[in-house]
Design a protein that fits this description.
It is built from eleven helices and 17 strands. It is α/β, with parallel strands linked by helices. The protein has two domains: 245 residues, Aminopeptidase (3-Layer(aba) Sandwich), CATH 3.40.630.10; 185 residues, Glucose Oxidase, domain 1 (3-Layer(bba) Sandwich), CATH 3.50.30.30. The protein starts with a helix and ends in an 11-residue tail after the last helix.
Length: 497
């Protein structure tokens, strides 16, 4: 009886001691994940030095070098002497001076628009110097075989078309889906009908009217290197529609209510000049580093902690898009988690791959490449945490929870104990750069904030707009989830589509 009591007391003591040590390690880690350090990294990555981090450009290469050096400083290792880079090729387009965007009427110049305030070029605009009448062509969609054509009955040959940037929210004849609302889809439709340039405008009847934004999402197909593309603000649309009898809101309302095209030639002329350098295959890189696990068996299994490093670059040497929230915040979090794990006395049992991807903005290019050419066997990946746009907003969302309910459950439990900021909102089917891995069966959870996109792709996405307290909580929650995975308390689950 006495011997049994001694064993029981020793067990309780050992358990309490281990719990105390674990609590101390967690406190140490959470103290290391602080808003000051996180914000400092965002300041660096969103600074003019990195020029909007457009893959293939000098600014992105220098941001990659910064991340690589910080991974090396934290003791992370690379594979196969590749110097922490996973090389890939992407499409690249550089927008140079001189440029202009001028409106005139009856040969009289009315206004010269300012880059950044009134308009921005699409990242994959073609280069040319054109002057022509403007024709409004609705949503810029031509699928006559399906019963809808914004170009039917309107002459756009050698004209510049103005179209809504997105697709309608209704279906053709109530059942047919629209073609992809990508740059190249709409450009191809315009070119097919003889247009020589395109002006995109945001739909004014949505809950939030967008400012002109930078965008690298171009879609599939070949680049048209001589076809100018820009995104104009609502003020420009007012000028272009003068004396037409319509405003942009009325045009959208009529098209959406009647569910048929309403295109018209305008009485205004515009002059657009833009110079570009396009490269179909430009070298760039994902940046990664590995912390090896401490357990003899579990070290052969991995957690992936990821974000995308890129943003949408700069234009004509005059403006750049800082991308503080999108996604210097996610890259900063990956780096801070790497730094934190490297400082811990108790090392993770499973190994961790920290990686920041290139070209998310072009359509998950870097993460797709990494999922198809994995640095580690994907069947050895226990889980993945992807962080994107996590420093602006009001609360935490963990996406893809319906596809990985066990991982979602861990997130909910950790939030209830520590951060108390997570919403019940989730979904299935992936999310951002985690999507290509999700499609290959990797359990993935996607960290983002609610109401995160107030400055999405705008010149105003600066560090001053961020929510440091929320930022800190998001990254702390991601770390707490990761410790459950790396310590072996989570077993890889079957992913639900």
């Amino acid at each position: 009886m006495y011997k049994t009591l001694i064993i029981l007391l020793l067990s309780v003591f050992c358990f309490s001691s281990a719990k105390s040590q674990n609590d101390q390690e967690i406190k140490k880690a959470l103290d290391n994940i602080n808003s000051k350090d996180l914000i400092e990294t965002v300041k660096i990555l969103s600074s003019p030095k990195y020029d909007g981090r457009f893959p293939g450009a000098k600014g992105y290469d220098e941001a990659s070098e910064f991340m690589r050096n910080e991974f090396k400083k934290s003791g992370l290792r690379s594979l196969n002497n590749d110097n922490y880079y996973q090389k890939l090729n992407v499409e690249y387009n550089q927008i140079d001076k001189p440029y202009q965007f001028i409106i005139s009427k009856n040969g009289v110049k009315l206004k010269s628009y300012k880059l950044g305030n009134d308009f921005v070029f699409r990242c994959f605009t073609g280069g040319n110097h054109i002057k022509a009448q403007v024709v409004f062509c609705g949503y810029g969609i031509s699928v006559p075989e399906s019963g809808y054509d914004d170009y039917s009955g309107i002459d756009v040959k050698n004209k510049i078309v103005m179209v809504f940037k997105h697709n309608p929210k209704w279906k053709i004849n109530g059942k047919v889906e629209w073609p992809d609302a990508t740059e190249r889809t709409k450009v191809n439709a315009a070119v097919k009908h003889g247009a020589i340039g395109i002006i995109y405008v945001s739909e004014p009847n949505e809950s939030k009217v967008e400012l002109p934004i930078g965008s690298a999402m171009h879609g599939e197909g070949n680049q048209n290197t001589t076809f100018p593309q820009l995104h104009a603000g609502q003020n420009v649309a007012v000028d272009l529609l003068q004396e037409s009898g319509y405003n942009l809101s009325k045009l959208q309302s009529l098209i959406d209510s009647l569910k048929k095209p309403l295109s018209l030639a305008l009485k205004t002329t515009v002059e657009i000049e833009v110079h570009t350098k396009y490269v179909k295959d430009k070298a760039t890189q994902n940046v990664y580093g590995i912390i090896e696990g401490s357990d003899p068996e579990l070290k052969n299994e991995y957690l992936i902690v990821s974000a995308h490093l890129d943003h949408v670059g700069s234009q004509a040497g005059e403006i750049y898009f800082p991308g503080a929230n999108d996604n210097a915040s996610g890259s900063s979090s990956v780096l801070q988690m790497a730094r934190t794990y490297s400082k811990m006395n108790v090392k993770p049992k499973r190994s961790i791959l920290f990686i920041v991807f290139a070209s998310e903005e072009q359509g998950l290019t870097g993460s797709t490449y990494s999922s198809e050419h994995p640095l580690i066997p994907l069947e050895k990946v226990s889980a993945m945490i992807n962080l994107d746009c996590i420093a602006f907003g009001d609360s935490i969302q963990m996406g893809n929870g319906k596809s990985v309910p066990e991982l979602w459950k861990i997130a909910r439990e950790k939030d209830s104990l520590y951060t108390k900021q997570m919403t019940h909102i989730t979904w299935k089917g992936g999310g951002a750069d985690g999507t290509p891995f999700h499609k290959k069966g990797v359990p993935m959870i996607y960290s983002v904030t609610k109401n995160s996109y107030g400055h999405l792709h705008c010149l105003s996405d600066k560090v001053e707009t961020l929510n440091p307290e929320l930022f800190e909580k998001v990254v702390r929650l991601a770390y707490l989830i990761s410790t459950e995975v790396t310590n072996g308390n989570y077993k890889r689950e079957k992913v639900s589509e």
